[in-house]
């Protein structure tokens, strides 16, 4: 219900506004405390890149993390990833493997491990995850924290804030009246802003474009030839902004018979899986991980890759070179 008011201003917005003011004050004071007492944060011996956002919901962090991993590996670095593991039930630091169930690690960390082929550690405490990563993989020289913008116990060297260019910042209010985890003023202190799908006013940004690459079968991950790619089907989405996925399919000329939104990190019920078992079902790569052992023969997922400006990558490279130059 609350999400329905986050992108407009209504009577309920103003009723909740005092709570939003309190929320904004608390998060600002919390960050200030860590800034004034840096010893309270874990300072990793290697560079830490935060990829996060200041609003709730899907903004496109995962493609940015994957693009960074690919770029860093191509330039001689050995990145590792730490993540909260949202949607999973792992209790302590857990290293994700290709065989780890999504129910344990969370779907995003499993996708990151499969696509990046770098170490991925999940733990609600990202500082513990970072320590565990360095202990288990001492060759790692860059830590990428997925969705760690507000996790101040982990000190950071680069902060990348990802923003959905369409939804942007909603009504501009913090939770619960709006979608913001931190006030808009937080953007003034991040290192770089990446916008997903366009530009935003008042803030310079690097525009990311998501490029659809190839269809795969959910059952076995087998790639589908372009000539056999689906042209219609039922779209299932368990992501923060399902409309973007639906539009991507429609822009490819795919006719959607039905669109099923199961909520961010959600999944089809057993009854729905049985109902659609013999139908042609289309989903994101992240969602597909939850159905690997129960998908129908004609269930497919679409892979996408992030396209970012060269200037963004060169900036990251320069920052890392400066970081290690001061530690020689």
TrEMBL record:
Catalytic reaction annotation: a lipid A disaccharide + ATP = a lipid IVA + ADP + H(+)
Residues reported to bind ATP: 55-62
GO biological process: one example: lipid A biosynthetic process
Biochemical pathway: Glycolipid biosynthesis; lipid IV(A) biosynthesis; lipid IV(A) from (3R)-3-hydroxytetradecanoyl-[acyl-carrier-protein] and UDP-N-acetyl-alpha-D-glucosamine: step 6/6
A GO cellular-component term linked to this record: plasma membrane
EC number: 2.7.1.130
Source domain of life: Bacteria
Function: Transfers the gamma-phosphate of ATP to the 4'-position of a tetraacyldisaccharide 1-phosphate intermediate (termed DS-1-P) to form tetraacyldisaccharide 1,4'-bis-phosphate (lipid IVA).
Family statement: Belongs to the LpxK family.
The protein's name: Tetraacyldisaccharide 4'-kinase
Organism: Celerinatantimonas diazotrophica
């Amino acid at each position: 219900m609350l999400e329905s008011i986050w992108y407009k201003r209504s009577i309920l917005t103003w009723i909740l506004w005092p709570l939003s003011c309190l929320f904004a004050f608390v998060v600002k004071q919390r960050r200030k405390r860590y800034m004034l007492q840096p010893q309270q944060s874990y300072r990793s011996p290697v560079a830490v890149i935060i990829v996060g956002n200041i609003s709730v919901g899907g903004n496109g962090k995962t493609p940015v993390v994957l693009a960074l991993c690919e770029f860093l590996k191509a330039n001689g670095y050995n990145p590792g990833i730490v993540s909260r593991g949202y949607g999973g039930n792992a209790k302590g630091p857990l290293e994700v493997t290709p065989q780890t169930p999504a129910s344990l690690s969370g779907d995003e960390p499993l996708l990151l491990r499969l696509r990046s082929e770098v170490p991925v550690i999940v733990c609600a405490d990202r500082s513990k995850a970072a320590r565990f990563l360095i202990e288990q993989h001492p060759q790692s020289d860059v830590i990428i924290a997925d969705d760690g913008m507000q996790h101040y116990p982990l000190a950071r060297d680069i902060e990348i804030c990802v923003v959905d260019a369409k939804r942007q910042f909603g009504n501009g209010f913090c939770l619960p009246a709006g979608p913001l985890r931190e006030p808009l003023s937080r953007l003034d202190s991040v290192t770089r802003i990446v916008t997903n799908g366009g530009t935003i006013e008042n803030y310079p940004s690097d525009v990311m474009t998501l490029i659809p690459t190839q269809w795969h079968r959910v059952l076995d991950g087998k790639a589908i030839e372009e000539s056999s790619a689906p042209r219609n089907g039922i779209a299932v989405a368990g992501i923060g902004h399902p409309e973007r996925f639906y539009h991507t399919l429609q822009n490819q000329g795919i006719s959607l018979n039905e669109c099923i939104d199961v909520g961010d990190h959600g999944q089809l019920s057993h009854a729905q899986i049985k109902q659609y078992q013999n139908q042609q079902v289309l989903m994101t790569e992240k969602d597909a991980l939850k159905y690997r052992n129960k998908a129908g023969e004609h269930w497919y997922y679409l892979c996408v890759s992030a396209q970012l400006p060269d200037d963004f990558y060169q900036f990251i490279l320069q920052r890392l070179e400066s970081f290690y130059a001061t530690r020689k």
